[in-house]
Amino acid sequence: MATTADLKNGMCIELNGKTFTVVEFQHVKPGKGPAFVRTKLKNLENGRVVDNTFSAGEKIDQVRVERRPYQYLYDDDMGSNFMHTETFEQIVIDKSLIENADLMREGQVVEVMFHTEKEQVLSAELPPIVDMEVTYSEPGVKGDTASTNSLKPATVDTGATVKVPLFINTGDKIRVDTRTREYYERIK
Hints:
This protein has strands at residues 2-3, 12-15, 18-28, 36-43, 49-55, 59-62, 65-76, 79-84, 90-93, 109-115, 120-125, 129-137, 151-156, 161-165, 173-177, 182-187. By secondary structure, the chain is mainly beta. The chain is flat.
């Protein structure tokens, strides 16, 4: 059993019967009173981020998780279908467990996080950067900007909409950060 001194970003813990991952934590020692740990925890079942405060030295239940590579196959009425890249086992994952699922394309490999004791899917994470092709974007007009970093919406080949700089046109290939949904760079 771990204590609050063992907390790290990305660590998975169980709290009130639910599985959370630590997004952020801060050890606070006020001038008066006992020390405590302020945390931001992401619920892996519904994706909500909650604030929680632990007393310093409080025991926490650490959850053992495994990350396994799965290839995205297709969507149907049950959810998104994935295949393990080594065992070829197929599973269906609910779309709500996949962050930014609209940036995912067929054949893409994602990391699926499993609760090892329950063999339950906790979440699926896309690679941090993905390559996309812009299928539609309004043309940028020179002199249209009031500031240096103006952005416009662009539709990519998966159907998702991403904000891109004005110089990006239809047919350009771009890299997108899947964590923030932001334009990363243009590919030549």
